[in-house]
Recover the amino acids of this structure.
Protein backbone atom coordinates (compact mmCIF):
# COMPACT_ATOMS: atom_id res chain seq x y z
CA UNK A 1 0.00 0.00 0.00
CA UNK A 2 1.11 3.55 -0.64
CA UNK A 3 2.57 5.49 2.26
CA UNK A 4 0.64 8.17 4.14
CA UNK A 5 -3.10 8.39 4.55
CA UNK A 6 -5.30 6.17 2.41
CA UNK A 7 -6.85 8.16 -0.38
CA UNK A 8 -10.28 7.68 -1.91
CA UNK A 9 -12.03 8.85 -5.07
CA UNK A 10 -15.33 10.49 -4.17
CA UNK A 11 -16.43 12.44 -7.22
CA UNK A 12 -16.17 12.24 -11.00
CA UNK A 13 -17.54 14.49 -13.70
CA UNK A 14 -17.30 15.63 -17.30
CA UNK A 15 -18.19 18.80 -19.12
CA UNK A 16 -20.35 18.83 -22.24
CA UNK A 17 -17.85 16.93 -24.40
CA UNK A 18 -17.96 17.19 -28.17
CA UNK A 19 -16.57 18.51 -31.42
CA UNK A 20 -16.20 22.27 -31.68
CA UNK A 21 -18.46 22.85 -28.69
CA UNK A 22 -18.06 26.62 -28.77
CA UNK A 23 -17.43 26.47 -25.04
CA UNK A 24 -14.33 28.03 -23.52
CA UNK A 25 -11.69 26.19 -21.53
CA UNK A 26 -13.15 27.87 -18.43
CA UNK A 27 -16.62 26.59 -19.36
CA UNK A 28 -15.33 23.03 -19.60
CA UNK A 29 -13.43 23.36 -16.31
CA UNK A 30 -16.48 24.74 -14.50
CA UNK A 31 -18.91 22.18 -15.91
CA UNK A 32 -16.66 19.25 -15.08
CA UNK A 33 -15.97 20.56 -11.57
CA UNK A 34 -19.67 21.09 -10.81
CA UNK A 35 -20.45 17.60 -12.11
CA UNK A 36 -17.76 16.05 -9.90
CA UNK A 37 -18.89 18.02 -6.84
CA UNK A 38 -22.51 16.94 -7.39
CA UNK A 39 -21.38 13.34 -7.85
CA UNK A 40 -19.52 13.52 -4.52
CA UNK A 41 -22.15 15.49 -2.65
CA UNK A 42 -19.56 18.16 -1.89
CA UNK A 43 -19.38 21.92 -2.37
CA UNK A 44 -16.45 24.09 -3.36
CA UNK A 45 -15.89 24.89 0.32
CA UNK A 46 -14.85 21.26 0.83
CA UNK A 47 -11.98 21.51 -1.69
CA UNK A 48 -8.56 22.68 -0.51
CA UNK A 49 -6.30 21.35 -3.25
CA UNK A 50 -6.39 21.67 -7.04
CA UNK A 51 -4.23 20.10 -9.73
CA UNK A 52 -4.59 20.51 -13.46
CA UNK A 53 -3.23 19.86 -16.88
CA UNK A 54 -4.69 22.32 -19.35
CA UNK A 55 -5.72 25.12 -17.00
CA UNK A 56 -4.03 27.27 -14.36
CA UNK A 57 -5.08 25.89 -10.98
CA UNK A 58 -4.85 29.16 -9.08
CA UNK A 59 -6.98 30.91 -11.67
CA UNK A 60 -9.47 28.05 -11.45
CA UNK A 61 -9.49 28.18 -7.64
CA UNK A 62 -10.12 31.93 -7.65
CA UNK A 63 -12.85 31.58 -10.26
CA UNK A 64 -14.54 28.79 -8.32
CA UNK A 65 -14.14 30.46 -4.94
CA UNK A 66 -11.83 27.87 -3.41
CA UNK A 67 -9.78 29.32 -0.56
CA UNK A 68 -7.41 28.74 0.98
CA UNK A 69 -5.62 26.54 -1.53
CA UNK A 70 -3.34 24.20 0.42
CA UNK A 71 -1.91 22.36 -2.57
CA UNK A 72 -1.79 23.03 -6.26
CA UNK A 73 0.14 21.68 -9.20
CA UNK A 74 -0.03 22.12 -12.93
CA UNK A 75 1.69 20.20 -15.67
CA UNK A 76 2.62 21.13 -19.22
CA UNK A 77 5.17 18.46 -20.09
CA UNK A 78 3.11 15.90 -18.22
CA UNK A 79 1.26 12.64 -18.86
CA UNK A 80 -2.15 14.30 -19.19
CA UNK A 81 -4.80 13.57 -16.56
CA UNK A 82 -2.63 11.04 -14.73
CA UNK A 83 -0.32 13.87 -13.74
CA UNK A 84 -3.17 15.83 -12.14
CA UNK A 85 -4.44 12.67 -10.47
CA UNK A 86 -1.14 11.49 -9.01
CA UNK A 87 -0.33 15.00 -7.75
CA UNK A 88 -3.75 15.10 -6.07
CA UNK A 89 -3.34 11.63 -4.55
CA UNK A 90 0.14 12.44 -3.22
CA UNK A 91 -1.06 15.72 -1.73
CA UNK A 92 -3.95 14.08 0.12
CA UNK A 93 -1.83 11.11 1.23
CA UNK A 94 0.84 13.42 2.64
CA UNK A 95 -1.63 15.73 4.35
CA UNK A 96 -0.75 18.84 2.30
CA UNK A 97 -4.47 19.09 1.66
CA UNK A 98 -7.47 16.94 2.60
CA UNK A 99 -9.58 17.11 -0.57
CA UNK A 100 -8.13 17.71 -4.01
CA UNK A 101 -9.77 18.42 -7.34
CA UNK A 102 -7.84 16.92 -10.29
CA UNK A 103 -8.57 18.39 -13.72
CA UNK A 104 -7.80 17.73 -17.36
CA UNK A 105 -9.27 20.25 -19.78
CA UNK A 106 -8.35 20.10 -23.46
CA UNK A 107 -9.58 21.87 -26.56
CA UNK A 108 -9.96 20.04 -29.83
CA UNK A 109 -6.62 20.05 -31.65
CA UNK A 110 -6.42 21.33 -35.23
CA UNK A 111 -6.81 18.68 -37.91
CA UNK A 112 -4.21 17.86 -40.53
CA UNK A 113 -6.31 19.51 -43.22
CA UNK A 114 -6.62 22.66 -41.12
CA UNK A 115 -2.89 22.68 -40.39
CA UNK A 116 -1.86 22.59 -44.00
CA UNK A 117 -4.10 25.58 -44.61
CA UNK A 118 -2.27 27.47 -41.90
CA UNK A 119 -4.31 26.81 -38.75
CA UNK A 120 -2.52 26.19 -35.52
CA UNK A 121 0.50 28.19 -36.60
CA UNK A 122 0.97 29.42 -33.06
CA UNK A 123 0.05 26.21 -31.31
CA UNK A 124 3.05 24.91 -29.38
CA UNK A 125 2.50 21.29 -30.42
CA UNK A 126 1.60 21.94 -34.02
CA UNK A 127 3.43 25.05 -35.10
CA UNK A 128 5.10 24.08 -38.34
CA UNK A 129 4.82 27.21 -40.39
CA UNK A 130 7.71 29.11 -38.88
CA UNK A 131 11.32 28.23 -38.60
CA UNK A 132 11.66 25.28 -36.28
CA UNK A 133 13.84 26.11 -33.29
CA UNK A 134 15.48 24.05 -30.57
CA UNK A 135 15.11 20.29 -30.86
CA UNK A 136 12.28 20.76 -33.34
CA UNK A 137 14.75 21.92 -35.99
CA UNK A 138 15.69 18.23 -36.25
CA UNK A 139 12.09 17.10 -36.61
CA UNK A 140 9.75 19.49 -38.39
CA UNK A 141 11.82 20.13 -41.55
CA UNK A 142 11.82 16.34 -42.08
CA UNK A 143 8.04 16.38 -42.41
CA UNK A 144 7.68 14.88 -38.95
CA UNK A 145 6.48 16.06 -35.57
CA UNK A 146 2.91 14.86 -35.53
CA UNK A 147 2.10 12.35 -32.77
CA UNK A 148 0.63 10.00 -35.39
CA UNK A 149 4.10 9.62 -36.84
CA UNK A 150 5.81 8.45 -33.67
CA UNK A 151 2.77 6.27 -33.04
CA UNK A 152 3.18 4.80 -36.52
CA UNK A 153 6.84 4.12 -35.77
CA UNK A 154 6.03 2.56 -32.36
CA UNK A 155 3.44 0.34 -34.05
CA UNK A 156 5.77 -0.66 -36.89
CA UNK A 157 8.59 -1.55 -34.50
CA UNK A 158 6.26 -3.66 -32.36
CA UNK A 159 4.96 -5.50 -35.41
CA UNK A 160 8.48 -6.14 -36.68
CA UNK A 161 9.81 -7.23 -33.31
CA UNK A 162 7.05 -9.69 -32.47
CA UNK A 163 5.47 -10.57 -35.80
CA UNK A 164 2.26 -8.81 -34.79
CA UNK A 165 -0.23 -7.95 -37.52
CA UNK A 166 -2.57 -5.13 -38.36
CA UNK A 167 -5.41 -7.55 -37.58
CA UNK A 168 -4.13 -7.77 -34.01
CA UNK A 169 -4.76 -4.05 -33.56
CA UNK A 170 -8.01 -4.32 -35.47
CA UNK A 171 -9.46 -6.85 -33.05
CA UNK A 172 -8.69 -4.52 -30.18
CA UNK A 173 -10.40 -1.62 -31.98
CA UNK A 174 -13.45 -3.78 -32.72
CA UNK A 175 -13.65 -4.85 -29.06
CA UNK A 176 -13.48 -1.28 -27.79
CA UNK A 177 -16.19 -0.21 -30.20
CA UNK A 178 -18.43 -3.00 -28.88
CA UNK A 179 -17.98 -1.55 -25.39
CA UNK A 180 -18.77 1.93 -26.71
CA UNK A 181 -21.98 0.59 -28.23
CA UNK A 182 -23.10 -0.04 -24.66
CA UNK A 183 -22.19 3.46 -23.44
CA UNK A 184 -24.68 6.31 -23.80
CA UNK A 185 -21.83 8.77 -23.27
CA UNK A 186 -19.75 7.48 -26.19
CA UNK A 187 -19.54 9.48 -29.41
CA UNK A 188 -19.07 6.44 -31.68
CA UNK A 189 -21.62 3.75 -30.85
CA UNK A 190 -22.06 1.74 -34.06
CA UNK A 191 -20.34 -1.61 -33.88
CA UNK A 192 -17.67 -2.31 -36.50
CA UNK A 193 -16.08 -5.45 -37.93
CA UNK A 194 -12.47 -6.35 -38.52
CA UNK A 195 -13.03 -5.64 -42.22
CA UNK A 196 -14.29 -2.16 -41.35
CA UNK A 197 -11.03 -1.61 -39.50
CA UNK A 198 -8.91 -2.90 -42.37
CA UNK A 199 -10.85 -0.67 -44.78
CA UNK A 200 -10.18 2.44 -42.69
CA UNK A 201 -7.60 4.86 -44.05
CA UNK A 202 -4.05 5.05 -42.82
CA UNK A 203 -2.89 8.27 -41.20
CA UNK A 204 0.71 7.15 -40.77
CA UNK A 205 1.01 3.57 -41.96
CA UNK A 206 0.61 1.14 -40.25
CA UNK A 207 -1.43 3.43 -37.99
CA UNK A 208 -5.05 3.83 -39.09
CA UNK A 209 -7.53 6.55 -38.26
CA UNK A 210 -9.40 4.05 -36.06
CA UNK A 211 -6.25 3.53 -33.97
CA UNK A 212 -6.33 7.19 -32.89
CA UNK A 213 -8.28 8.80 -30.08
CA UNK A 214 -10.94 11.23 -31.25
CA UNK A 215 -10.16 14.94 -30.89
CA UNK A 216 -12.84 16.81 -28.95
CA UNK A 217 -13.31 19.68 -26.53
CA UNK A 218 -13.49 18.10 -23.09
CA UNK A 219 -13.27 18.83 -19.40
CA UNK A 220 -12.86 16.11 -16.79
CA UNK A 221 -12.69 16.33 -13.00
CA UNK A 222 -12.05 13.79 -10.25
CA UNK A 223 -12.12 14.56 -6.53
CA UNK A 224 -9.75 12.76 -4.16
CA UNK A 225 -10.03 12.86 -0.37
CA UNK A 226 -9.03 10.86 2.69
CA UNK A 227 -10.64 7.48 3.30
CA UNK A 228 -12.04 8.85 6.54
CA UNK A 229 -13.88 11.68 4.80
CA UNK A 230 -14.97 9.39 1.99
CA UNK A 231 -16.74 7.12 4.47
CA UNK A 232 -19.03 10.02 5.47
CA UNK A 233 -20.18 10.57 1.89
CA UNK A 234 -22.96 8.88 -0.03
CA UNK A 235 -21.03 7.25 -2.87
CA UNK A 236 -19.60 3.75 -2.51
CA UNK A 237 -15.99 4.15 -1.43
CA UNK A 238 -13.26 3.58 -4.02
CA UNK A 239 -9.73 3.48 -2.62
CA UNK A 240 -6.36 4.16 -4.20
CA UNK A 241 -4.43 0.97 -3.53
CA UNK A 242 -1.27 1.99 -5.36
CA UNK A 243 -0.19 4.80 -7.65
CA UNK A 244 2.87 5.70 -9.69
CA UNK A 245 4.23 8.42 -11.93
CA UNK A 246 7.50 8.27 -13.80
CA UNK A 247 9.48 9.66 -16.72
CA UNK A 248 12.46 8.13 -18.48
CA UNK A 249 13.52 10.98 -20.76
CA UNK A 250 12.52 14.34 -22.26
CA UNK A 251 9.55 14.48 -24.57
CA UNK A 252 11.10 12.97 -27.69
CA UNK A 253 9.26 9.81 -28.63
CA UNK A 254 10.78 9.74 -32.13
CA UNK A 255 14.36 9.11 -30.98
CA UNK A 256 13.68 6.66 -28.18
CA UNK A 257 16.20 3.83 -28.48
CA UNK A 258 13.60 1.27 -27.33
CA UNK A 259 10.11 2.06 -28.61
CA UNK A 260 8.64 -1.21 -27.31
CA UNK A 261 9.58 -1.03 -23.63
CA UNK A 262 8.81 2.53 -22.60
CA UNK A 263 7.69 4.36 -19.46
CA UNK A 264 4.74 2.02 -18.77
CA UNK A 265 7.33 -0.64 -17.86
CA UNK A 266 8.61 1.46 -14.95
CA UNK A 267 5.14 2.64 -13.95
CA UNK A 268 3.80 -0.92 -13.86
CA UNK A 269 6.76 -2.06 -11.77
CA UNK A 270 6.07 0.68 -9.21
CA UNK A 271 2.35 -0.03 -9.20
CA UNK A 272 2.92 -3.69 -8.29
CA UNK A 273 5.57 -2.79 -5.73
CA UNK A 274 2.94 -0.68 -3.98
CA UNK A 275 0.50 -3.52 -3.35
CA UNK A 276 0.20 -7.18 -2.42
CA UNK A 277 -2.27 -7.63 -5.25
CA UNK A 278 -1.18 -9.31 -8.47
CA UNK A 279 -2.35 -9.08 -12.09
CA UNK A 280 -4.59 -12.10 -11.45
CA UNK A 281 -6.55 -10.05 -8.88
CA UNK A 282 -7.53 -7.34 -11.36
CA UNK A 283 -11.14 -7.39 -12.57
CA UNK A 284 -10.85 -4.66 -15.20
CA UNK A 285 -8.14 -2.53 -16.80
CA UNK A 286 -8.75 0.92 -18.23
CA UNK A 287 -5.69 1.59 -20.37
CA UNK A 288 -4.95 4.79 -22.23
CA UNK A 289 -5.64 4.39 -25.93
CA UNK A 290 -4.35 7.58 -27.48
CA UNK A 291 -3.20 5.04 -30.06
CA UNK A 292 -3.92 1.28 -30.11
CA UNK A 293 -0.26 0.39 -29.63
CA UNK A 294 -0.34 2.08 -26.22
CA UNK A 295 -2.94 -0.40 -24.95
CA UNK A 296 -0.70 -3.25 -26.11
CA UNK A 297 2.29 -1.77 -24.28
CA UNK A 298 0.27 -1.48 -21.07
CA UNK A 299 -1.18 -5.00 -21.27
CA UNK A 300 2.34 -6.37 -21.48
CA UNK A 301 3.98 -3.95 -19.04
CA UNK A 302 1.38 -4.72 -16.36
CA UNK A 303 1.93 -8.45 -16.84
CA UNK A 304 -1.54 -9.35 -18.06
CA UNK A 305 0.14 -11.20 -20.92
CA UNK A 306 3.68 -11.89 -22.05
CA UNK A 307 5.85 -9.73 -24.29
CA UNK A 308 4.53 -9.61 -27.80
CA UNK A 309 1.39 -11.51 -26.79
CA UNK A 310 -1.11 -8.66 -26.51
CA UNK A 311 -2.56 -9.41 -29.93
CA UNK A 312 -3.26 -13.02 -29.03
CA UNK A 313 -4.59 -11.95 -25.62
CA UNK A 314 -7.11 -9.68 -27.34
CA UNK A 315 -7.93 -12.27 -30.03
CA UNK A 316 -8.81 -14.80 -27.32
CA UNK A 317 -11.52 -12.46 -26.07
CA UNK A 318 -9.90 -11.65 -22.74
CA UNK A 319 -10.33 -7.89 -23.08
CA UNK A 320 -13.99 -8.03 -24.07
CA UNK A 321 -16.78 -7.65 -21.52
CA UNK A 322 -17.34 -11.17 -20.21
CA UNK A 323 -13.68 -12.03 -20.77
CA UNK A 324 -11.00 -12.53 -18.14
CA UNK A 325 -9.93 -8.86 -18.14
CA UNK A 326 -12.39 -6.45 -19.73
CA UNK A 327 -10.39 -3.46 -21.04
CA UNK A 328 -11.65 0.06 -21.72
CA UNK A 329 -15.22 -0.80 -20.89
CA UNK A 330 -16.43 2.73 -21.68
CA UNK A 331 -15.12 2.34 -25.25
CA UNK A 332 -11.85 4.17 -24.68
CA UNK A 333 -10.85 7.61 -25.91
CA UNK A 334 -11.15 6.41 -29.52
CA UNK A 335 -14.90 6.32 -28.93
CA UNK A 336 -15.75 8.62 -26.01
CA UNK A 337 -13.39 11.33 -27.30
CA UNK A 338 -10.06 12.62 -26.08
CA UNK A 339 -10.49 13.19 -22.35
CA UNK A 340 -6.77 12.65 -22.14
CA UNK A 341 -6.62 9.98 -19.51
CA UNK A 342 -9.49 11.00 -17.25
CA UNK A 343 -12.09 8.62 -18.69
CA UNK A 344 -9.95 5.64 -17.66
CA UNK A 345 -9.89 6.75 -14.02
CA UNK A 346 -13.60 7.59 -14.10
CA UNK A 347 -14.70 4.35 -15.77
CA UNK A 348 -12.55 2.35 -13.30
CA UNK A 349 -14.22 4.21 -10.45
CA UNK A 350 -17.72 3.63 -11.82
CA UNK A 351 -17.04 -0.07 -12.31
CA UNK A 352 -15.90 -0.40 -8.69
CA UNK A 353 -18.96 1.55 -7.50
CA UNK A 354 -21.21 -0.71 -9.57
CA UNK A 355 -22.43 2.24 -11.65
CA UNK A 356 -21.45 1.17 -15.16
CA UNK A 357 -24.97 0.11 -16.12
CA UNK A 358 -25.15 -2.49 -18.90
CA UNK A 359 -21.35 -2.47 -19.02
CA UNK A 360 -21.07 -3.42 -15.36
CA UNK A 361 -18.58 -6.16 -14.54
CA UNK A 362 -20.19 -8.30 -11.82
CA UNK A 363 -18.57 -7.84 -8.39
CA UNK A 364 -15.68 -5.75 -9.69
CA UNK A 365 -13.33 -5.23 -6.76
CA UNK A 366 -9.97 -4.30 -8.29
CA UNK A 367 -9.30 -2.04 -11.27
CA UNK A 368 -6.18 -0.56 -12.79
CA UNK A 369 -6.16 2.59 -14.89
CA UNK A 370 -3.22 4.07 -16.73
CA UNK A 371 -2.23 6.98 -18.93
CA UNK A 372 0.47 7.90 -21.45
CA UNK A 373 3.40 6.03 -23.01
CA UNK A 374 6.92 6.60 -24.26
CA UNK A 375 8.84 9.18 -22.22
CA UNK A 376 6.38 9.27 -19.33
CA UNK A 377 3.47 7.46 -17.78
CA UNK A 378 1.35 7.18 -14.65
CA UNK A 379 -1.56 5.23 -13.27
CA UNK A 380 -3.21 3.74 -10.24
CA UNK A 381 -4.67 0.52 -8.89
CA UNK A 382 -8.07 1.09 -7.30
CA UNK A 383 -10.10 -1.14 -5.01
CA UNK A 384 -13.70 -1.20 -3.84
CA UNK A 385 -13.59 0.09 -0.26
CA UNK B 1 28.04 8.49 -50.12
CA UNK B 2 28.85 11.84 -48.60
CA UNK B 3 29.48 15.12 -50.24
CA UNK B 4 26.80 14.45 -52.85
CA UNK B 5 23.58 16.37 -52.79
CA UNK B 6 20.61 14.93 -54.59
CA UNK B 7 17.99 17.32 -55.83
CA UNK B 8 14.48 16.11 -55.29
CA UNK B 9 11.70 17.44 -57.44
CA UNK B 10 8.02 17.60 -56.62
CA UNK B 11 6.81 16.59 -60.07
CA UNK B 12 8.24 14.28 -62.64
CA UNK B 13 8.13 17.00 -65.26
CA UNK B 14 10.52 19.28 -63.42
CA UNK B 15 13.96 18.98 -64.84
CA UNK B 16 15.96 21.83 -63.40
CA UNK B 17 16.10 21.20 -59.69
CA UNK B 18 13.61 21.82 -56.95
CA UNK B 19 11.13 24.58 -57.62
CA UNK B 20 11.37 27.66 -55.48
CA UNK B 21 7.68 28.21 -56.10
CA UNK B 22 4.91 26.90 -53.92
CA UNK B 23 4.85 26.76 -50.15
CA UNK B 24 8.11 27.33 -48.32
CA UNK B 25 9.40 24.28 -46.51
CA UNK B 26 9.59 24.24 -42.72
CA UNK B 27 13.10 25.57 -42.18
CA UNK B 28 15.43 24.92 -39.27
CA UNK B 29 16.43 27.78 -36.99
CA UNK B 30 20.09 27.07 -36.22
CA UNK B 31 21.44 28.42 -32.94
CA UNK B 32 24.95 28.49 -31.44
CA UNK B 33 24.52 24.92 -30.15
CA UNK B 34 23.25 23.46 -33.43
CA UNK B 35 25.09 25.56 -36.05
CA UNK B 36 27.77 22.87 -36.54
CA UNK B 37 25.13 20.41 -37.70
CA UNK B 38 23.78 22.67 -40.46
CA UNK B 39 27.27 23.77 -41.46
CA UNK B 40 28.02 20.06 -41.91
CA UNK B 41 24.92 19.54 -44.01
CA UNK B 42 25.95 22.44 -46.24
CA UNK B 43 29.30 20.71 -46.73
CA UNK B 44 27.80 17.27 -47.28
CA UNK B 45 28.89 15.89 -43.92
CA UNK B 46 26.82 14.39 -41.15
CA UNK B 47 28.13 15.81 -37.89
CA UNK B 48 26.90 14.72 -34.48
CA UNK B 49 27.73 16.38 -31.19
CA UNK B 50 30.29 14.44 -29.15
CA UNK B 51 31.49 14.88 -25.60
CA UNK B 52 35.23 15.47 -25.61
CA UNK B 53 35.47 14.26 -22.01
CA UNK B 54 33.70 10.89 -22.04
CA UNK B 55 33.33 10.23 -25.76
CA UNK B 56 29.56 9.77 -25.84
CA UNK B 57 27.62 11.22 -28.75
CA UNK B 58 24.57 13.41 -28.11
CA UNK B 59 21.65 13.94 -30.44
CA UNK B 60 19.82 16.28 -30.23
CA UNK B 61 22.69 18.69 -29.45
CA UNK B 62 22.76 20.20 -25.95
CA UNK B 63 24.91 22.50 -23.81
CA UNK B 64 25.88 19.71 -21.39
CA UNK B 65 26.83 16.05 -21.70
CA UNK B 66 24.13 14.08 -19.92
CA UNK B 67 26.54 11.19 -19.32
CA UNK B 68 29.35 13.05 -17.54
CA UNK B 69 28.07 16.66 -17.20
CA UNK B 70 31.00 18.05 -19.15
CA UNK B 71 30.37 21.08 -21.32
CA UNK B 72 33.25 20.25 -23.65
CA UNK B 73 31.10 19.31 -26.62
CA UNK B 74 31.92 19.45 -30.31
CA UNK B 75 30.35 18.45 -33.57
CA UNK B 76 32.25 15.56 -35.17
CA UNK B 77 31.88 14.01 -38.56
CA UNK B 78 30.39 10.53 -38.31
CA UNK B 79 30.44 7.67 -40.79
CA UNK B 80 26.91 8.24 -42.01
CA UNK B 81 26.26 4.54 -41.59
CA UNK B 82 23.33 3.30 -39.57
CA UNK B 83 20.79 0.53 -39.19
CA UNK B 84 17.06 0.96 -39.61
CA UNK B 85 15.22 0.84 -36.27
CA UNK B 86 11.68 1.64 -37.39
CA UNK B 87 9.67 3.66 -39.90
CA UNK B 88 6.23 4.91 -40.83
CA UNK B 89 4.72 5.85 -44.14
CA UNK B 90 3.51 9.44 -43.86
CA UNK B 91 0.31 9.58 -45.89
CA UNK B 92 -1.14 12.68 -44.31
CA UNK B 93 0.63 16.04 -44.54
CA UNK B 94 0.96 18.34 -41.55
CA UNK B 95 2.67 21.18 -43.36
CA UNK B 96 1.75 22.92 -46.64
CA UNK B 97 5.16 22.11 -48.11
CA UNK B 98 4.56 18.39 -47.73
CA UNK B 99 1.06 18.34 -49.24
CA UNK B 100 2.40 17.35 -52.68
CA UNK B 101 5.15 15.15 -51.23
CA UNK B 102 3.14 12.38 -49.62
CA UNK B 103 3.67 9.54 -49.26
CA UNK B 104 7.13 9.67 -47.77
CA UNK B 105 8.96 7.49 -45.27
CA UNK B 106 9.78 8.89 -41.83
CA UNK B 107 12.30 6.66 -40.09
CA UNK B 108 14.44 6.40 -37.01
CA UNK B 109 17.87 4.91 -37.55
CA UNK B 110 20.58 3.90 -35.09
CA UNK B 111 23.91 5.43 -36.04
CA UNK B 112 26.84 3.00 -36.15
CA UNK B 113 28.95 5.16 -33.84
CA UNK B 114 27.15 4.20 -30.63
CA UNK B 115 24.38 1.83 -29.50
CA UNK B 116 21.22 3.79 -28.79
CA UNK B 117 22.35 6.84 -30.79
CA UNK B 118 19.14 7.44 -32.71
CA UNK B 119 18.58 9.80 -35.62
CA UNK B 120 15.19 10.66 -37.07
CA UNK B 121 15.19 11.14 -40.80
CA UNK B 122 13.46 10.29 -44.05
CA UNK B 123 14.35 7.30 -46.19
CA UNK B 124 14.95 7.73 -49.90
CA UNK B 125 15.90 5.57 -52.87
CA UNK B 126 13.78 2.69 -51.61
CA UNK B 127 10.19 1.54 -51.40
CA UNK B 128 8.20 0.29 -48.46
CA UNK B 129 8.70 -3.31 -49.58
CA UNK B 130 12.48 -2.94 -49.28
CA UNK B 131 12.35 -2.11 -45.59
CA UNK B 132 13.24 -4.37 -42.71
CA UNK B 133 14.42 -3.73 -39.19
CA UNK B 134 18.18 -3.81 -38.89
CA UNK B 135 18.91 -3.15 -42.55
CA UNK B 136 22.06 -1.11 -43.17
CA UNK B 137 21.44 2.42 -44.40
CA UNK B 138 23.67 5.35 -45.24
CA UNK B 139 23.27 9.09 -45.25
CA UNK B 140 22.56 11.02 -48.42
CA UNK B 141 22.01 14.74 -48.65
CA UNK B 142 18.83 15.76 -50.42
CA UNK B 143 18.03 19.28 -51.56
CA UNK B 144 14.29 19.60 -51.08
CA UNK B 145 14.24 23.30 -51.84
CA UNK B 146 16.91 25.90 -52.59
CA UNK B 147 16.77 26.83 -48.92
CA UNK B 148 16.54 23.33 -47.44
CA UNK B 149 18.91 20.40 -47.74
CA UNK B 150 18.47 17.54 -45.31
CA UNK B 151 20.39 14.40 -44.39
CA UNK B 152 18.18 11.53 -45.49
CA UNK B 153 19.15 7.85 -45.43
CA UNK B 154 18.99 5.18 -48.13
CA UNK B 155 19.83 1.49 -48.28
CA UNK B 156 23.59 1.08 -47.92
CA UNK B 157 25.35 0.61 -51.23
CA UNK B 158 27.46 -2.30 -49.96
CA UNK B 159 24.25 -4.01 -48.83
CA UNK B 160 23.03 -3.82 -52.41
CA UNK B 161 26.27 -5.44 -53.49
CA UNK B 162 25.83 -8.26 -50.99
CA UNK B 163 22.23 -8.80 -52.01
CA UNK B 164 23.12 -9.15 -55.68
CA UNK B 165 26.19 -11.30 -55.04
Amino acid sequence: MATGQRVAIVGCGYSHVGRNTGLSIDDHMIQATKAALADAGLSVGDIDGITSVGTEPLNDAWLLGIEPVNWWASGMMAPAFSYSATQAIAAVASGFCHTALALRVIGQQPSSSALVKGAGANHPMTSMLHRAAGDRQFIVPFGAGSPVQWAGMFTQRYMQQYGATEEDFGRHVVTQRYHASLNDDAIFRDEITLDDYLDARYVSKPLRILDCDYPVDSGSAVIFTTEERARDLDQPVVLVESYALNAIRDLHFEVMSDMVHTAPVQTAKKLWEGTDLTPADVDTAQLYDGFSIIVFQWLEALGFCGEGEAGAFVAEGNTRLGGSLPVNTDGGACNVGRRHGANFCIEATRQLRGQSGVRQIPDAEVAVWTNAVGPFAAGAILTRG
Amino acid sequence: MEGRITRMTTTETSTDGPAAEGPMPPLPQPDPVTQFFWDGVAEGELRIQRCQNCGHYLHYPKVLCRYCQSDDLRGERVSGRATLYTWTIAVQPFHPFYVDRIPYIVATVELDEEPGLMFMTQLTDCTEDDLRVGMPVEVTFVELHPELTLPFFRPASDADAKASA
Q: What stands out?
A: Chain B touches chain A through 46 residues (CB under 8 Å).
